[in-house]
Amino acid sequence: MEPELLNEGLKIIEQASCILEGISDRPGVTPLQFYAALDSEGITGADHRAALLQAATTIELSLESLTADTHPTIH
Asked: Which pTM does this prediction carry?
């Protein structure tokens, strides 16, 4: 895998994570909440928004798969 592509993917994941943390410190952020956060941050590019939503969805699904009893976490 190309290092530049990997670095870009990591930046998208980090940005999505920061946006999620700005919305809530618990899993369960809805797509509408996430899009509202993108709007408030002035992120308008369709491709960038789609990449961020995909990363945020993956983060949310990962967090929801962990139970609070076995893996307490906040993002």
From this structure: 0.81
